[in-house]
Request: fold
Amino acid sequence: MQPHALQVFRAVAEHGSITAAARTLRYTQSAVSRQIAALEAETGAILFDRLPRGVALTEQGRCLLGHAEAVLDRLDAARRDLAALRELTAGRLRVGAFPTAVAALVPRALATFRSAHPGVALSLVEGLTPGLLERLLAGDADVAVLSAASDQPLDDERFDLHHLVDEVLLVAVPRTHRLAHRRTVRLRELADDAFIAGSADAEKTLLRATLPADFRPRIDIVAAEWTGKLGCVAAGLGVALIPALAVRAAPPDLALLRLHPDDASVRRVFAATVAGRSRPPAVHRFLDHLDTAAAGLGLPDHPSGSGVTPGNTN
Amino acid sequence: MQPHALQVFRAVAEHGSITAAARTLRYTQSAVSRQIAALEAETGAILFDRLPRGVALTEQGRCLLGHAEAVLDRLDAARRDLAALRELTAGRLRVGAFPTAVAALVPRALATFRSAHPGVALSLVEGLTPGLLERLLAGDADVAVLSAASDQPLDDERFDLHHLVDEVLLVAVPRTHRLAHRRTVRLRELADDAFIAGSADAEKTLLRATLPADFRPRIDIVAAEWTGKLGCVAAGLGVALIPALAVRAAPPDLALLRLHPDDASVRRVFAATVAGRSRPPAVHRFLDHLDTAAAGLGLPDHPSGSGVTPGNTN
DNA sequence: ATCCCGCCATGCTCTCGCGGCATGGCTGGC
DNA sequence: GCCAGCCATGCCGCGAGAGCATGGCGGGAT
Reply:
């Protein structure tokens, strides 16, 4: 009952002739004759009547033919489905990402991925690093984009980490600011500036880990969204800290300065998968899209990278 | 993608372990490992994640598993169906028979066949020999019970003939008839008796071929049915010719005498199938039932058989 | 009527697939 | 730190299966 034998059987049934079937199958007549004989011995049924001019299905042969075609069709379907998964014309990709990454990096990667592989169902869930790792281990996500401070190496052996970019911290200042022409500034140079914070809580979770503990910015205005924050800066109300990943496009009315590495610990951004678990083709391909999206952001992919050149207008 | 490999694959997926699957399959671990590796090479997909404690299906593995189970189930169904056809728990049997045979012979065979194999769908169609042969060749019947006069040998090479009985012609006479004690009579001894015919037409088709052309019976009464015919005979209205096959049970109130072979050509009754065409198990088995039914009728299965002992009451 | 041709079955040979045996690498638990 | 269990792989032997050749058989053409 091997599919090979069933194919031969189907061909013989279609042609009504062993010799003709052998020709189209590129086999010798004897091989096909033996296959049929073996199938008849295995099933204990006479499948064909041997007529003087070829063969004809018996009732038992017709019975088997239906099953044989169903089996062969299903095997083809299996091959097609696996090929679709491999060729990324089907399947799904579940991405997890930390909040800053969903601003531009991951969406852009998803966009190019989707246009390249429209058949793959995409899902994106935002979360913090511990939760994302949890999802990965539980099998609820295929890949997670997460960040880790360089002094907190996230060396967990359970994950494979693919380095994407370094999340540098930028200082947004008005075009008219005295430091607007600088590429890099030190925190102490901003000691007298008014800072525009996000929410008090967000500022804590986002910046506390990266800024030196002794730096206490003077906070005048709280603006919950990055857009509002940058608007305040552009209006000359103060300066703001903003992770480079959160910048979607080069704002024309303000300057973005890199913070000196000694003042802010660089957080490395990774794509994480579960170690020892096979990367499905979709995940594998998505990492490429993440790489190009990261390169398109113009951020350094390693700590000694070049200057800040925010990404193109979207 | 051989079913063997799919079985191994399913077992490994169920056990989550190559070693455990190998144990239940009575294989060595290495054989199963190779099967999985070969399947992965063939499909171009990684089917399992190798964990430190066994293996776990990947997404592609789950994709294949559904198809594999469907294929294996369908193969089992095919085997079951073929076995059912072979064991006669399913299928159909289409019987054709000439009119006299449907009186007792064929119905009895069908009855015992049905009680032995209730799963087989039976159909019976009555017809004359030429039509029955037509049906056989056209594939509209699986077996045909027909009769042929011994001088018209029906030696067609296209059919396989299985001899069942010889259709002797009986003479029904009242118990009080002067010949009631005889076992065999000559036609000329009945020259003065009144004959009870079936329809004029039936008498022609049925008897003209078997009786000598110069015999002109004196017909007083026409009774269309065998029952009525025999009733008239029992009432003393005359005598009647009746093929032995049409006698369902020994009638207590009349005597059945065999006609001398020289007076009536014996018609041989066969079960015919198409020559060179395989006999399905149902047909093969039905021939046995026909044989026992024929034996149960108590008629000679060859011209030199013993006397008339009509079948048991049904 | 005879010959020939096409069809299917089968004995023989060889090759490759596949299973068993043994070993080696790896990881988690006592 | 050792051991036990799991999986992968080199090696070997057997059997399934394909090709080659032959033979039987029946139908159609000459």
User: Anything to note?
Assistant: Residues 92-163+268-294 of chain A form a domain with the D-Maltodextrin-Binding Protein; domain 2 fold (CATH 3.40.190.10). Chain A touches chain B through 36 residues (CB under 8 Å). Residues 17-19, 29-30, 33-34, 37, 50-55 of chain A lie near DNA strand C (CB under 10 Å from a C1'). Residues 59-87 of chain A form the longest helix (29 residues).
